[in-house]
Amino acid sequence: MENIEELIKTGNATIVDVRTSAEFMSGHVTGSINIPLREISQRLPEFKNMKNIILCCASGARSSQASLYLEQNGIECKNAGSWMDVNCYC
After folding, report:
1. 56-59 own/partner pairs: CB under 8 Å, 24+ apart
2. Could you read off the pLDDT of 40-67 as tens digits, one per residue?
3. Catalytic residue among 56, 57, 77, 90
4. Is 57 among the residues known to form the active site?
5. Which of 15, 42, 58, 86 has its CA 20 to 30 A from that of 25?
6. Which domains does the chain have, with CATH numbers?
7. How high does pLDDT run on average in the chain?
């Protein structure tokens, strides 16, 4: 997988925000999708169909947990940390 900034700038990334729906609605990266951390295990099939997954949240803690879980389930992804940092790449 290419580096995070390159994937985002070229539009080749699937940006997944793992914050709660309420947090996501208060602001998010344009074009990102919201799959809250607590729903990831039930939504694994969706992740398996995604390419170049970039995870973000408020600070990077939840996206780190999500990244670890997905990788343990054979899904390649990258933790980009804060959604505000990701937003700077767009």
Report:
1. 56/15, 56/16, 56/17, 56/18, 56/29, 56/32, 56/80, 56/81, 56/82, 56/83, 56/85, 56/86, 57/17, 57/18, 57/19, 57/81, 57/82, 57/83, 58/19, 58/23, 58/82, 58/83
2. 999 999 999 999 999 999 999 999 999 9
3. 57
4. yes
5. 42
6. 4-89 (3.40.250.10)
7. 94
